[in-house]
Amino acid sequence: MHAACGFSQVAFYFVCLGCECVMIMANDIKEYAKSIGISDVGICDASKDERFYGFLSVRRKHFSACSFEERDAEKRTNPRLFLPTAKSVVVCAFSYYTGHTSSGNLSCYAGLPDYHKVVQKYLDALSAFIHKSVPGAACKTACDTSPLMDRMLAYRAGLGFFGKNNLLIHPTLGSYFFIGSVITDVALDADAPLSSQCMGCDACIKNCPGQALSSNFGFDCETCISYLTQIKTLTEKQKELVEKQESVYGCDVCQKVCPHNQHLPATTVEEFCIEPLEELKASELSAMSNRQFKKTYKNYPFSWCGRETILKNFLQKNEED
């Protein structure tokens, strides 16, 4: 930060190329991000988050980790393990609320185009903007594709506060949004976390089908319906939980009952402004080969777990259609 230049309160970055200087400010990045359709943007520094490191370490003493979750709390909370020269993280929120929630057997996000691919496109564009503004800048992107805890980064960047359902709640978008980040060695002014807090009504805890939630942000993945519909093998107790639910992929109950998710604006992210797929049929999936399943549903986020994993959720319900 060059206070002598009169920008002590504004983040910027200079790259000197002979007599040419290039400057980029945090607001430049935010304005560009929103101009291409990103719902909201915040920035945090790239240091290790000691608070979340401690939180995750304590949680591991009480609850098991999801099978596809990074176990190492250091890797989850330290962006510089991902990019050693990192100074800032540009965190983006992508609303996927289409104006209604699913009434079928799929979580509402699951019936939309695969967010990994959609968000990556926007992050690549944002990285290109930074590279153009700051030649030689290092950038790495993450959207549920790195060990880092995306919600931690979004919280630190001022994009929301944590609800008792363990989801991040944006003051305008609610919890119906995806998170993507650009980790960079460009030094940018960081935003402050929001002072807002969860209402604490406990509606999510009371209505969770698997009773996976508890006070003090407790979360037991072993009874979470969303998690159970995404893993291949279930215990007898877990089979009973899935049998009682209509969903065959994901669960939206803790979002639907949340007061913070009422009267939300519909997404303006172009790729999500469509009529979502709301239901899968066991008869159709049973008639498909694994290859046909992948080809038919390759553009949906549930395709990764495979045909057999989803079919097993139908079988728990003894449904043929």
Task: Sum this structure up briefly.
The chain is an alpha+beta fold and 321 residues long. Helix content is 31%, strand content 14%.
Key structural traits:
321 residues; 4-stranded antiparallel beta sheet; globular
Describe the structure.
This protein is of the alpha+beta class. The protein is 31% helix and 14% strand. It has helices at 26-35, 50-62, 73-77, 115-133, 150-156, 203-207, 225-228, 236-243, 253-256, 282-287, 290-297, 307-316, and strands at residues 12-17, 20-25, 40-45, 88-95, 139-142, 161-162, 168-169, 177-184, 213-214, 218-219. It has a four-stranded antiparallel beta sheet with strand order 3-4-8-5, with helices on both faces. Helix 8 (236-243) crosses helix 12 (307-316). The longest helix has 19 residues, at 115-133. The termini are far apart.
Describe how the helices and strands are arranged:
Layout: E1 12-17, E2 20-25, H1 26-35, E3 40-45, H2 50-62, H3 73-77, E4 88-95, H4 115-133, E5 139-142, H5 150-156, E6 161-162, E7 168-169, E8 177-184, H6 203-207, E9 213-214, E10 218-219, H7 225-228, H8 236-243, H9 253-256, H10 282-287, H11 290-297, H12 307-316
Order of helical and strand elements = EEHEHHEHEHEEEHEEHHHHHH
Q: How confident overall, as mean pLDDT?
A: 89
Contiguous low-pLDDT stretches (5 residues minimum) are 1-22
The 3D shape can be described as globular
Main beta-sheet strand count, sense and barrel state: 4 strands, antiparallel
How many helices?
12
Considering DSSP H and I runs of 4 or more, what fraction of the residues is helical? 25-40%
Category from helices, strands and their pairing: alpha+beta
Tally of strands = 10
Strand content: 5-15%
| Cα-based radius of gyration, to the nearest Å | 21 Å
How far the N terminus sits from the C terminus, by CA atoms, comes to 62 Å
Task: State the strand order across the main sheet.
Answer: 3-4-8-5
